[in-house]
């Protein structure tokens, strides 16, 4: 084997007095994928930014170490290079794909101009030739109708297509090293499977090394050749992917593997009640068309189409489906955060649909929602004791005099220290903030909690803690959950039953173990086929579905 494409030696990174990365060393060879895994704050993204020499823009400092890149002609120490040389290397010999393409793409520039800029900057092409090269780059990443996409803006593309555009830009100059920082975290499993396979195929074609940063161990099993496990900025373990999954050596690695949901390991066996808390019948929600002043309501998009579901006391109904299928719209329609077009919703036997604003406000005491981003859900200006008791105050369940006592009981209930009530949201980790959101929901003693991607942005160990907490609260208080997620492994673990949603309709519902073992609908089968196996030797050789942009014929169950 020739020398490595990238060699990181004794890397130390600090933010002020905090040492974020402590003497990290690893290397990556051509056509090799190294996965960097660990909890939030372990130093994964800081390492990636240091390699690109962007860490200084984030307030960080490289204290010591070498970052050696073989650019094909010579070996360069990126730490010693000036801005001009680094600018020539970024996007050329070394590229990066970030987690959220919408924040990485310029919303006011057309896709063609953004991809063409790479060729203009690094290949000195004319604008006409650069646009032609941009079209070829979009075609290379399997974007349908690449010529038409050149004139579109980022908001006109799906999340999966935007991520393909980011990959096209990153690979435009055939880099020696590609850094992928959580590139599939926000994507549903089918889109994720296509993106992962695309990266692997292009890696084999170009021969680049890949540094893959993720907290999804299923993705690690699918992608990595070797794995480096980080904790608090230190390398805890480095191993071949097969060895790490079969025989993790470090205690932290063992806990990380134990916290990873493994498809097929069984669903919830906890008993659920028979009293129906939520009953939804033939619910439909339409978004009005923006085509013109005189367009009819019937011309709008039918986001939820005749959905009927029910959830019993002490039961969790898992709701799964691809992005854009209507899951979140259904959740918001149930609680009348979005007004449904037709159908009925009964919460604890009382109608939510058709009720007055005063009646709806009283009924909402029985149903609370937990969102994906806990930081965006919490007012940064309020101390915790006000934040988590606000719903109780709104419903007249607690006075200002007694709110601190209630807050202390609530934080203890979700496993936080009592003194947390005097702090502010920014002083907590992501997992702790999600616990605060749960405490806030519990302040009114609800009978139903709607969890909309409540753990998808969290590390596997933190996500496991949050789902354990939800199960504990369910067992103790008989809470009903509508649990929305694109992570089938998590849904399997927490759900009694699963409902599968496709294009606004529920295409299949059943007991979790039964549905996952023997799915009846063709769309469910495709969805499950896209889930990473979590076992390195079972890597996918081809995408589980159609190419991006195609509309599969799933509407018959025998499909």
Automatic annotation (TrEMBL):
Native source species: Roseibium marinum
Swiss-Prot/TrEMBL catalytic activity: glutathione(out) + ATP + H2O = glutathione(in) + ADP + phosphate + H(+)
SMART domains found in the cross-reference section: AAA
Keywords per UniProt: ATP-binding, Cell inner membrane, Cell membrane, Hydrolase, Membrane, Nucleotide-binding, Repeat, Translocase, Transport
GO term, biological process aspect, one: peptide transport
Residue stretches making up the ABC transporter domain: 6-257, 278-528
Domain of life: Bacteria
Subunit structure comment from the entry: The complex is composed of two ATP-binding proteins (GsiA), two transmembrane proteins (GsiC and GsiD) and a solute-binding protein (GsiB).
PROSITE patterns: ABC_TRANSPORTER_1, ABC_TRANSPORTER_2
InterPro entries: AAA+_ATPase (IPR003593), ABC_transp_ATP-bind (IPR050319), ABC_transporter-like_ATP-bd (IPR003439), ABC_transporter-like_CS (IPR017871), Oligopep_ABC_C (IPR013563), P-loop_NTPase (IPR027417)
Localization annotation: Cell inner membrane
Segments forming a coiled coil: none
Family indicated by similarity: Belongs to the ABC transporter superfamily. Glutathione importer (TC 3.A.1.5.11) family.
GO molecular function annotations of the record: ATP binding; ATP hydrolysis activity
Topology of this chain in the membrane: Peripheral membrane protein
Task performed by this protein: Part of the ABC transporter complex GsiABCD involved in glutathione import. Responsible for energy coupling to the transport system.
Recorded GO CC terms: plasma membrane
Its EC number(s): 7.4.2.10
Pfam families: ABC_tran, oligo_HPY
Protein's UniProt name: Glutathione import ATP-binding protein GsiA
Major enzyme class: translocase
Principal cellular location given in the protein's record: membrane
């Amino acid at each position: 084997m020739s020398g490595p494409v990238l060699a990181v030696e004794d890397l130390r990174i600090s933010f002020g007095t905090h040492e974020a990365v402590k003497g990290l060393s690893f290397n990556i060879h051509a056509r090799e994928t190294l996965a960097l895994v660990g909890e939030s704050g372990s130093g994964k993204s800081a390492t990636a930014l240091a390699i690109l020499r962007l860490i200084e823009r984030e307030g960080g400092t490289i204290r010591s170490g070498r970052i050696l890149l073989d650019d094909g002609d010579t070996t360069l120490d990126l730490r010693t290079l000036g801005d001009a040389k680094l600018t020539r290397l970024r996007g050329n010999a070394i590229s990066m794909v970030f987690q959220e393409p919408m924040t990485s793409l310029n919303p006011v520039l057309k896709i063609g101009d953004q991809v063409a800029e790479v060729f203009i900057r690094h290949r000195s092409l004319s604008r006409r030739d650069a646009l032609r090269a941009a079209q070829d780059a979009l075609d290379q990443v399997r974007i349908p109708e690449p010529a038409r996409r050149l004139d579109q803006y980022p908001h006109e593309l799906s999340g999966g297509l935007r991520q393909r555009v980011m990959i096209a830009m990153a690979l435009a100059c055939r880099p020696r090293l590609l850094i992928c920082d959580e590139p599939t975290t926000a994507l549903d499993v089918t889109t994720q499977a296509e993106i992962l396979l695309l990266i692997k195929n292009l890696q084999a074609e170009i021969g680049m090394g890949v540094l893959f940063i993720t907290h999804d161990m299923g993705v690690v099993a699918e992608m990595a050749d070797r794995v480096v496990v980080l904790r608090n900025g230190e390398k805890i373990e480095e191993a071949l992917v097969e060895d790490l999954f079969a025989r993790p050596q470090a205690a932290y690695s063992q806990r990380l593997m134990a916290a990873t949901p493994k498809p097929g390991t069984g669903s919830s066996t906890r008993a659920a009640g028979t009293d129906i808390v939520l009953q939804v019948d033939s619910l439909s929600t339409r978004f009005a068309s923006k085509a013109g002043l005189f367009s009819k309501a019937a011309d709008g998009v039918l986001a939820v189409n005749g959905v009927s579901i029910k959830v019993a006391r002490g039961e969790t109904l898992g709701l799964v489906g691809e992005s854009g299928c209507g899951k979140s719209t259904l959740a918001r329609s149930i609680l009348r955060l979005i007004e449904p077009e037709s159908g009925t919703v009964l919460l604890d036997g009382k109608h939510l649909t058709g009720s007055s604003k005063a009646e709806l406000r009283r009924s909402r005491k029985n149903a609370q929602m937990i969102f994906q981003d806990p930081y965006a859900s919490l007012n940064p200006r309020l101390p915790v004791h006000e934040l988590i008791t606000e719903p109780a105050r709104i419903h007249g369940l607690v006075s200002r005099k007694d709110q601190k006592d209630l807050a202390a009981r609530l934080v203890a209930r979700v496993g936080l220290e009592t003194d947390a009530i005097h702090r502010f949201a920014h002083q907590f980790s992501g997992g702790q903030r999600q616990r605060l959101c749960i405490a806030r929901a519990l302040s009114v003693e609800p009978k139903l909690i709607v969890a909309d991607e409540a753990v998808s942005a969290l590390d596997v160990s933190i996500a496991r803690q949050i789902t354990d907490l939800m199960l504990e609260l369910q067992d103790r208080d008989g809470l009903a959950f509508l649990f929305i997620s694109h992570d089938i492994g998590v849904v399997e673990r927490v759900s009694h039953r699963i409902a599968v949603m496709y294009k606004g309709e529920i295409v299949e519902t059943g007991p979790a173990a039964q549905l996952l073992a023997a799915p009846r609908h063709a769309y469910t089968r495709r969805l499950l086929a896209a889930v990473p196996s979590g076992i390195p030797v079972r890597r996918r050789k081809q995408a589980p579905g159609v190419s991006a942009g195609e509309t599969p014929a799933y509407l018959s169950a025998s499909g």
